Amino acid sequence: MSGGTASEDPARTTADVAVIIPAYRSAGVLDTTLASVAAQTLLPREVVVADDASGDATAEVARAWSGRLPVTTVVLDENRGPGGARRIAIEHTTSPRLALLDADDVWLPDHLETLVAAHDRLGGIVTADPIRWLPGTALSETSVGRDLPIPPPAAQRAAILRHDFVFIGTLFERADYEAAGGFRDQFRGPEDWDLWIRMIRRGTVVHRADHPTVLYRLSAESGSAHERMVEQERAVVLAALAESTTEEDHRVLTRTLRDIEARTALQEAYGLARADRPWGARSRAVGGLRGPGRIRSRCAAILVAPRLATRARDQRVHDPRWWLRVSGRRSTQWWRTRR
Fold first, then answer.
1. CA-to-CA distance for 24 and 104, rounded, in angstroms?
2. Does the predicted model carry a pTM greater than 0.85?
3. 2-220, what's its fold?
4. Euclidean distance between CA atoms 162 and 5, whole angstroms
């Protein structure tokens, strides 16, 4: 572990906020991310970078910012995944509020000021309104907020059990985080969804910033990474089911699990079609016909023409520019696609 203290800037104030950055093999992008923190109109009291056993120069890049940011670098001796890395980073801080930042995202200069001001007024979890960014290609034309509204407080408990509507770039009270039990190591990818479920079940209310303040970096691997998340999402839902205390929660989660299983059937059907097993693909696609409309229609396309449907899907999803166009309603958990 190493730490540093940034020089004071009399023109800017500092908030009692700790910025939490899990980093895995992030040496090529971390400078840009930390530069965006250093450029904030409201500076954080603490910044912790948890190097998740990267094996590259991630820790050295973080340490190089010790003269410009109050940054502490924690090097993990084994890979814990983003949830475990965030949990350990949080344990190395004392500030009463926590701000989450992924190692390849970029904050616009007013990000922290905007989230702190909203939290001062509203409390709870304040989530940013991100803009999807594919370096070297473009920014998305709209932010997430237009297509994925935050449900009203009374509806948030049921809604979070259906899909994750909270972007990872958030600000919240340490006390609320600790009361919910913090990040759990067993989930890799949807570990934040698991945390939001537990926080919202305890009564924490989610609010969104009133304008975009984050660039969310996508990559050419976003499509395949999105598929790998399905089994982890299923694990989150099963954990939430085991911890359910009301019949309504159980009913909603049972429906969510059914939809995830339909998505699994669709993905396996695509895999069988790629392996030149069209009848196997058709048989597996039947399992997705009870899923939501988009899944159901794609499974129906496989029943008609497995190879053609799979080829069309791969051309679309493996074009990284598609991820700039996809709306929040069509892919409510798209921010896990790079992990």
1. 10
2. yes
3. Spore Coat Polysaccharide Biosynthesis Protein SpsA; Chain A (3.90.550)
4. 42
